[in-house]
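lol ok so funny story. i was supposed to be doing the assay writeup but got distracted and ended up predicting the structure for this chain instead. priorities right. anyway since i did it might as well share w the group, maybe its usefull for someone
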Amino acid sequence: MRERIHDVEANRSTVPGIEVMTLNTNHHFPRHSHDQFTVGVIDSGAQRSWSRLGTVYASAGDVIAANPGEIHGGVPIDRTPRRLRMIYLDPWLVYREMEQEGINAVEILPPVVRDPILTGTFTRLFTYLTDVNSDHLGTEESLLRCLIRLLRKHRTARPSMHSCTPRIAKAVLCLNASPEKAISLTELAALCGVSRFQLLRAFAREMGITPHAYLIQRRVLLARRLLACGQTSAEAATQAGFADQSHMTRAFVRQMGITPSRYRALTA
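and the output, tada:
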């Protein structure tokens, strides 16, 4: 078995509403989602990912992407580390930028894209975002060029996988509304008007993960927001509904790839 390799460089972005990260890792990211638009480039190695389109493969030079709230995951091929550069963009920033250009449908269809021009615009943007001496005009131009290429060439209307049956939608809304609150499978099933097993099977089929796994990843996203607002790891763990700080840390690292303390330092 190959040794675990997980080197992460989290950079402070020069633009509010954008986070950047470089990873060299054979970490197995479980199925999860982000509140942001996620765009990245694989510089070396390869990975297999679960997506709403099924299993997809990405290798060096490919662009990987996910919409806010879209469940996805990533597993290295043969446990060989892959090097990734990632950019996470808050939805309000993307909507603002695209509204000025008359682009209304801001959703990305392909989870993997082979587009050398997009890779080039991404690379320029990444360089500007990670250079504390970069000028505002160059950064603004690079951001606009990257988003225009991405959303004109690869956008789509809202994918059908984002639409789930009314019963499962009710469960999702319940979990989204108060992820910090404890809820049983019995209570969730009663809310949806189905048996526990019916809920478990339908939720996993439509969302790609179980209700409990979905709840944990929503708690991680809540903890992320709390940390970004200045809460300590202990405070964020309590307010996000985790049993304790160590429980939150394990879930946070598994999903986000970095520890809560490192994330808090990055956003402070």
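The radius of gyration is 19 Å. The chain has two domains: 6-153, 164-267.
back to the writeup now i swear
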